[in-house]
Amino acid sequence: MIHPFAYLFERFxxxxxxxxxxxxxxxxxxxxxxxxxxxxxxxxxxxxxxxxKIPITYLPPEKQLRSEIDLHLVARNLPSRVRKILKxxxxxxxxxxxxxxxxxxxxxxxxxxxxxxxHFGGMAARTAWWLGELYGIGFSFTGHANDIFVEHDVPVGNxxxxxxxxxxxxxxxxxxxxxxxxxxxxxxxxxxIYNGITIPEAAPRPPANPPxxxxxxxxxxxxxxxxxxxxxxxxxxxxxxxxxxxxGGGPLHEELLQQIQRLRLESYVRLLGPxxxxxxxxxxxxxxxxxxxxxPEKDGGSDNLPTxxxxxMAAGVPTISTTVAGVxxxxxxxxxxxxxxxxxxxxxxxxxxxxxxxxxxxARLGAAGREKAQRKFAIENTVRELKHLMVDRLRLPAPPPxxxxxxxxxxxxxxxxxxW
Length: 420
Prior knowledge:
By secondary structure, the chain is of the alpha/beta class. Helix content is about 45%, strand content about 15%. It is built from 17 helices and 13 strands. It has a seven-stranded parallel β-sheet with strand order 3-2-1-4-5-6-7, covered by helices on one side. A six-stranded parallel β-sheet has the order 10-9-8-11-12-13, sandwiched between helices. Helix 4 packs across helix 5, helix 9 packs across helix 14 and helix 12 packs across helix 15.
């Protein structure tokens, strides 16, 4: 069985990375048959992640993996170059990535895989870097948000990842330009492919009474939930009746709860914690507005292309967000949604009131948002673009089912590789 490449994840599947397993599932559906490897076991409750009927290889736990590699070192089962590097650098910071690569190299060789694609410029990408260092295996990665916007104190940083990667994918043109400005080797190597989503069937939207605002995301600074709560405070004080639901969960839960209590918004704002995707979709089918008040973080991090904004647009929900990073590539203000400046609860409140007061405008923006989501973010189109790029630029083999899926596609033929 041909595996043209392997996906490599830190932890898969993950509830907060729905875009990853949707991409994997669609890549399989389109006939590419990638091998799926996860460095760690998932931690999410099983009901939170969408079901996947795809084999996943999990690496052994850290101590067990190191013990296995040490046994191979003693038995001299690994190539001499690999043995030499492991002995020299085993005590360095983040050396677990090197040991993971040492374990993965023979496994990938057994499967005939000579290229890996990682999501996020983090742990999995650093392990992929070491696969190149130890075994000459090529890698590419998709950079998302804080993994590329914030430099982390590790030996293999973003500059080294970009320099060695065969290809770098970013979610937005904003991120592509940022990468090219920060890292000179990125020029000509970075390609923007939007995260894909599943477009739901069109359905009538019954009006909610009182009006219902929805926001979804991890309870972290960059999501701007504190600004949304302050926005709710402002519109409550103007005499408006409404309900605001914030679903997600995370480290700021208690802080946000205290803010709600301090502003006496318990009857207006509720924190639901993490919800399965089916429940989020159900909420999107009933609410009046979707709001995500993204803000830049103090350390330079931010959202980039929030998947939930695309999902809200695809569901036909009138959507309000901010001008942070790649969000303006999703929403053209006044055409298919509304954008306000970040950290401006007053502007956010004015936008919410405007759509509450003008249901005709809200309906028009919702319909236009759905049309744009279908055009720019449909998962079958974004994955097809990535598949073609990997085969045509990286010269990965295209299995027969992938050719059948795209009968007009003429991928470049390439001979199969041999290892060491």
